[in-house]
Amino acid sequence: MKVKAKKHLGQHFLRDLHACERIADLLSGYQNYRTVLEIGPGMGVLTQFLLRKPQFEVHVVEIDRESVDYLHEHFPDLSPRVHNYDFLRWDLQTFSTESFGLIGNFPYNISSQIFFRVLEYRNQIPEVVCMLQKEVAQRIASPPGSRDYGILSVLLQAFYDIKYHFTVPPGAFDPPPKVQSGVIRLQRNAVTQLDCDEKLFFNVVKTAFNQRRKTLRNALKPIGVIFDHPLLEKRAEQLGVAEFVDITQTIERAKKA
Q1: How do beta strands 13-14 and 173-174 pair?
Q2: Tell me: the pLDDT tens digits for 100-119?
Q3: Cβ-contact 195, 241 below 8 angstroms
Q4: Disulfide check for 144: which of 40, 173, 192, 240 has CB 3.0–4.6 Å away?
Q5: Are 140 and 159 within 8 A, CB to CB?
Q6: How much helix, strand and coil, in percent to the nearest 5, is found in the chain?
Q7: Of 130, 115, 123, 107, which is closest to residue 46 (Cα–Cα)?
Q8: Who contacts 189 (Cβ-Cβ below 8 Å, separation ≥6)?
Q9: Residue 149 neighbours by CB under 8 Å, 6+ apart
Q10: β partners of residue 61
């Protein structure tokens, strides 16, 4: 029995065993977590390498019922830890109140949404190892000043150290995607709380990049607060996390004035 890839779920099953092993080996147990959750295991090609690591208790979350049946049949020891849920809607507090690592071949069409969930649960997720569309992977790992640098770059780099590790070609998948894939690792940094209002920070970053070709003076007008700052003559892609925090603090003070 073989699971048929479903287009509406964005499924592209990784079949390159060497790539799977390399991805699994990037899990370091950073900050001493023991539980690992794999998103979208499909037929368990990556899962088999995770199960060879005795330091981890492996769980998988899979929305596709056909894949779930396949996993129960071919990985009977894993069965109690196969969770048939939509990761984007699953209350992760019911999964674990402890720290856990996250890994997977993320479906391209929901990868950004997965990362917003990672941000939501960042104090429980010290490490993420994932494969996604190469352009998105590069964007997330890009430093300020890069053409690829964007909203997710800033928001994730505020709380994680991120490194791009390697590229996986379309031929490594069944069916092959039309783009290359990239593997990145995120490890939680020491920032427990931003030195500004977090909700406002997120809004400032998103608003700044919505019109990334404009200077911040013009791009941030929708926020509706008049303020002055030397960074306003720059564009969003030129600012690092600390500079976005600085601007957010200035807006907070302007609102109170």
Answers
A1: antiparallel
A2: 999 999 988 899 999 999 99
A3: no
A4: 240
A5: no
A6: 45, 20, 35
A7: 130
A8: 159, 160, 161
A9: 139, 142, 143, 237
A10: 39, 83
